[in-house]
Design a protein that fits this description.
Elements: H1 2-30, H2 38-54, H3 67-97, H4 104-125, E1 130-131, E2 140-143, E3 146-149, H5 150-172, H6 174-184, H7 186-191, H8 196-222, E4 224-225, H9 229-244, H10 249-270, H11 275-289
Helix pairs in contact: 1-5, 1-8, 1-9, 1-10, 2-3, 2-4, 2-8, 2-9, 3-4, 3-8, 5-6, 6-8, 9-10, 9-11, 10-11
Length: 305
Amino acid sequence: MLLLQQLLNGVMLGSVYVTVAVAFTLTIGVLNFLNFTIPTLFMLAGMIGWALAYWGLPFEMSGPLPWPMALAVGIVVSIVASLIVERFTFRYLKTRYGDSTEHAIPLVSSLGFLLVLENLVRIGYGTDAQRFPGPGADLTMNIGGIFVRIPQVVSLFLVILIVIGLTWLLKHSRIGRGLRAIAENPDAANILGVDTKRVVPIVFMLTGLLCGLAGALFAVNYGEVSPQMGEDIGTKAIAGMVVGGLGSIWGAVLGGLIVGLIEMLTIHFFGADTVQVAVWGLLLLTLFVRPQGLFGHNSIGKGKL
């Protein structure tokens, strides 16, 4: 029974990894660079949500906000921050330096944004973990001896709906065709009339939305936020993305769930100290045996989405 409980916990935790892994997949699948600000966008939604639910709006403009409204504002902040990153890590540098931005300059500049934003949050709210004032009632169900938290179940279904909707958007909408054209060949996409200055920000907006939702769901489900909360989630989401296959959205889904299950099973059998060894050992094994991952392709960033 305890093993079944851990398997369920692994799936629920994996759903958080899935959302962040899909955000990584969008940027590497379309723009072919690893966006290091993604863990910070995840953290921003949780920390801003906590600050508004605990303190209220800045300058005493309001008292503490209801936690759903606070998290909604946190998600909006993540989207805005992601668009700012797009403006200065991709559009500005691309305009100024052209092809020299592939791929080191956007990567390093996104790492700079990660450090700046994370340290600003630490300066503003401290480094300690904070208890998120989420649902006050006990929302846990006992099903045959298995304990299931309703927010986690809702989160899992919400993640599935988001991935299905994103897949439909990429496959059947005009925006999706533009994104796939840019992923295949940016220069050819421009010749065919795809306006990259309008389409590329959509990638960052979706990235901010996904990370914001993941951060909000994490805050509600686990009841704790901190300026460091994105670091562990981000690295394990990267592991899930690689295991599932770089550039494959459904690969990111499967990889995130696998990493969540591996983490919980490792804790169950060997203890929490061995989690990092198990997760990164799985990553290295994947790279040795099947570098493209379970559903990935050999040519990263070309025709993945």
